[in-house]
Amino acid sequence: MKYVLVTGGVVSGLGKGVTASSIGVVLKACGLRVTSIKIDPYLNMDAGTMSPFEHGEVFVLDDGGEVDLDLGNYERFLDVRLTRDNNITTGKIFQSVLEKERRGDYLGKTVQVVPHITDAIKNWIETVAAIPVDGKEGPADVCVIELGGTVGDIESMPFIEALRQLLFSVEPNNFCLIHVSLIPVLGVVGEQKTKPTQHSVRELRALGLTPHFLACRSAQPLLESTRQKLSQFCHVSVGNILNIHDVPNIWHIPLLLRNQNAHEAILKHLQLMKVAKTPNLQEWTERAKIFDNLSNSVRIAMVGKYVGLTDSYLSVVKALLHACISCSLKPDIKWIAASDLEDDTANSKPEAHATAWEDLKNAACILVPGGFGDRGVKGMILAAKYARENKVPYLGICLGMQISVIEFAQNIVGWEHANSTEFDDQTPNPVVIFMPEGSKTHMGSTMRLGSRRTLFQTPDCLMAKLYHNFEYVDERHRHRYEVNPDVVSNFEERGLKFVGRDESGKRMEILELTSHPYYVGVQFHPEFKSRPGRPSPPFLGFILAAIGQLSSFLQNSQNGSL
Question: Is 525 a catalytic residue?
Fold first, then answer.
């Protein structure tokens, strides 16, 4: 196994995840099989209990793993299916070591960070790196490892030491270290400053790791004088100093690395030149070029709870981007805080209320994504009502689907106080209820998680046509509440059809409103399986409906034109 370790210095948020993903893309384009591991040094077992404001979205894998959003980047860029074990956290490592200590596996020895924690980290990496994630048999050729945080963080020290030991044990030609660092430009001087990177590399070297490559983040391309200075003071050859400057869209980054011959330098270091081929990035080149040249856009109202941090809905944004590009459009997302639509806000923040409603009414389509808790629910219900009454294409995901059910119950069925027991446990009409196997005492990994099968109830439904599968579809879930099966008949006789259900027939997975051009709710999260060049069907239908092309698309698809 060949390892490529990506670390970060100076500041967080430099884009290590995208850099690591792009390196994987270039190596994969050279004909190599690539897997990836993300190390998060926090004590949480996983990202499942973290607030989206704290850490961005929680990405869900096929096996139900709730992981860091960077694993979403890996899956989208590399088109692989990772496992929960591809995300290593301090919590997972400590738990595995303490479980062994309780069983007496260490035979009375004093359990310490070195060697027990570091050995556990090395063993975990070597074991997970051998798990195939691309649908083929046997281990991958290269494992790209991203170490979260920045060099020098106290919580990452055990991982740094474990990786140093791993480097020593696998021999130099099997291990490549790429350090991502910032090259700032001070406004007064206007000079590209290398000192922060010098200090970061010095600290990394003091910990026993010497970078083979520098991936320098900068606003503008690096000057040759800057490269020479970095090479001299960081002991990295000029040819191994990669520049990842700002680009119009992230699809340019693999191309940027390819154009700097990063693949050749990495392959040469890992002694893989003989088995690799010239990278084929034609698809990436075309996609980046198409996006840069797009002039038309579609306005999408995103009505959510965490709109203050757009990373909270990263996969939804990517899925919208994939769908828009396939329709030769750019997404123009209007972020609307759901609470700003509520009547109470009209009194406390009239300007925000007026702006929110103006953005909603000017949008070509309305999306309500997932979330937890009752903040903003009334605003989401108002958005769903507006979409239903005005025939505006609507897509509700997870909570967004439940919102559409609540709104329909209140305004069409006539149950004025209908609600979800998540928001009102005393409601006389519980149309959304706590799922049977859930836990109200433990939050982590107690939801319905991972890939589950949805069976279409009729081949004539819209979603079956968009999925090009009239029997079933497998999508990823993350929820604690679901539509009450006891009240479903009250909705279906009024036109709100539950066209997708689980294998028991009691869990409602997909709803469609028959009298509406596109009013769809899905209990699962289709955004997690959307890929560049292969957009998620619910999102594709959503955008097509927004631009009035859904009917012609379905007609062409039925005739075999697509």
Answer: yes
